[in-house]
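User: hey, got a sec? need Polyphosphate kinase folded
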Amino acid sequence: MPTDKHIPLINREISWLYFNDRVLQEAADPTVPLLDRVRFLAIFSSNLDEFYRVRVATLSRLANLNEKAKALLGYNPKKVLSQIKSIVIKQERKFNNLYENIIIKQLAAEKIFILSDTQLNVTRGAFVKEYFRSKLLTTLVPVMLDESSAIPELNDRSVYFFVKLTLKKRIRYALIEFPANLPRFLVLPKTNDLNFIILLDDIIRYSLEDIFFIFEYDSIEAYSIQLTRDAELDLDKEVSEKFIDALTKSLQKRRKGKPMRLLYDADMPADMVNNLVLKLNARPENLIPGSRYHNFKDFIKFPNVNKPELEYSRYTPLPAKGLSFGKSILNQIMLNDYLVSTPYQSFDYTIHFLREAAIDPKVREINISVYRLAENSSVVHALINAAKNGKKVVCLVELRARFDEENNIYWSNRLEEEGVNVIYGIPNYKVHAKACLVSRMEKGKLAYYACLSTGNFNEKTASIYADHTLFTANKKITDDLICVFRDLQKGQLPKGLKSLIVSPYDSRPAVYKLIDNEIKIAKAGKKAYMILKMNSLSDEDLVAKLYSASNAGVKIDLIVRGMCCLVPGVKGYSENINVISIVDKYLEHARALIFGNGGKELVYLTSADLMTRNIDNRVEVGFPIYDEKLKQVVKDIIKIQLADNTKARILSGDGANKYKKTKDEEPHRSQIEIYNYLKEKNT
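Assistant: Yep! Here you go:
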C-alpha cells in the first residue's frame, strides 16, 4: 500500500537519538548500581559512534540531492543533519555533566578515585612512569607537524593527542595515536583503603617529557581528538568465491572512509582548534566539542576494585521447565515443544542441542544460519565436531553483519578448514534469520528437529540480550524449514511457506493479512487487538497500516526498545495506539507479535523488526508458537512488560521519554518480575 506522506511520522534518525537518550537516563538513574551507570555511559558513547559511522554517513551522502529527490525522500537531509548536531551537542553536555559532576563524585564517595595526570603524588607518579616506560613508550611514535604540513589520515575511532610545544614564539605541533592493544585503565596501588585508577590518556599526558625529550620547549599541551568515519561498505553485490576478498578490502577502506564527526576536547584552545580544522580540512558541521576523554565505550570495562555491591547482581540462569540436561535433548523435543527465554534461562540448551547432534550416530545432517558469533564460539566448535564425526554440516554465515564482518570471516574460514560446507548468503540480501535444523534417522525415516530464535547463536550476547528460542519437532515448522534451507543453499529466496513467515517475499503480505483480519473483526463490532514487541518500528507503510487499524477501532499496544517513527495518540490516526519502551539491565531484543484473532490468539516470534530493511531486504524467519502452554508463557511475559512502571518510558513522539506511571502504587520492574515468573513456573 502506498504511504500517505502526510501521516504523522518521526524522522528515524531523530527517533534513534531519543532512544539513546533513554540509555543516558539509565546512567543518570541513582537506583542503578554505580558501575553499571558508568557502563550505560559507555553504551551511550558506543551507540553514538555507530550512529555517526552509519546513519549520519548515509544522510551525508544524500545531502546534495536535488529538490525532486528530496520530495521523494520525504525530508531534507541537510535539515535533519542540522537537527542531529543540535540534539547531539545537548546530549554530550548532559553526558559530560553526568560524568564529571555526578559519577566522579559518587565514585569518590565509594573510595574510588580517577586521577588525572596533575593529581599524582611522588609515589604514584613513580609507579605510573615505570608502567609507561615498560609498557607504553615503545608503542608511541609521534608524528611531527610543521605549520604548513597536513595531518596524515586519521584512523576511524582511534584516539589521538593533538600536541602543541611552545618555545618562546616558536610553535611545533605533533600527533600521538593511542595504542589499541593496551588496557584503557591502570589500577594504582591501594592506600589506606582508598582505590586509585588512572586512564591511559593521563598516563601519556604525565609522560609527555619522555616522548618529546629531544625538543626544547617552555610549555607543552595535549588534547584528545577522535575522528569517526563513514562505515558503510561499497561492495560488489555478486556473492562469489571472491566475496571474502572483496569484503576484506572494503573493511580496510572503512578505516579510511569519509570523516563524519571530529570530536575534540572542549578545553582545547581556539588557536589549536582552528589549526586542527585547517589541517584536517574539516567542515563546521562535523565538529563536536566533547569531554577530556574520548572512546568512552572503553568504560564498559571499567575495573571493579573488589566492590561487587556497585554492580547489578547476576542471576543464575534458570532451567526450562521439563527440559533436562541429563537426558537426550532431541528425544525430549520429539515429545514436546520447549521455549527458552535467555538470559533468564540458560543458553546452554542451544549448545547442548548442537553438541548432541554432533555426536548422535543417528544424526545425518545439521543446517544452521548464523549472524553474529561469539569470539570463542561454542556453536562453531560443536559444528566442527559434527563435521569430524561424519555429519553433513551446512552453515550459512552472514559475512555482512555490520562490525562483526572480520570475526565472521575468521570463523567461516575455520569452519571450511574443518570440513563444514559454508555458504555466504544471498546476493543483495543479508541473511538475518536465526535457525537450525537437525535431521536424524529414526526407524528408517528422517525425523527433523528445529531450533529457531529471535536472537543470535552467540553465548556472549545471550547473557545480556533478552530473547526467546523455540525447540520443536512440529512437522508444520520443520517442513517449512527444510524448504528454507534448501532454497538458501540454491541461492534462492524462500517463499510461499505454510507456517513460517519469511522475508523478503512473505513477511509484508503476511503481516498485512494479520492486521487486516483485526480490522475486519473490529468493523464487525467485536474485540480486536494486537500487541507487537520489537527493537525498531520505522517502515512507513506499516506505520500507515497500523494507523488504519487504529482508526477501525483495533486496540494496539507497542513495546519498542529503539527507534519508533509512529506517533501515538494523534486524533484521526493513532488514538487507539499506546507505545512504551523498556531500557534496563538486559537489552530487550526479542520480537513478538500477538493478534487477538477473534478470541483464538495467534502468537509469533521473529528475527525481524518492523523496518523496511528487515521486511524487504533481508532473509528473516518468523515462527508461530503452536503449543498452548508456551503461547501462554509469551503472553504472560508481554503482560508483565506492559505493566512495567519502573523502567518503561512512554513514547509520545516528542522525545520526552517520560517514565510510565500506573495507578498501582507498587513498583513493577519487568525484568525482575520475568525472572521470578519463570523461576516460579519451574517449581
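Quick note: Residues 513 and 519 are 10 Å apart (CA to CA). Let me know if you need anything else on Polyphosphate kinase.
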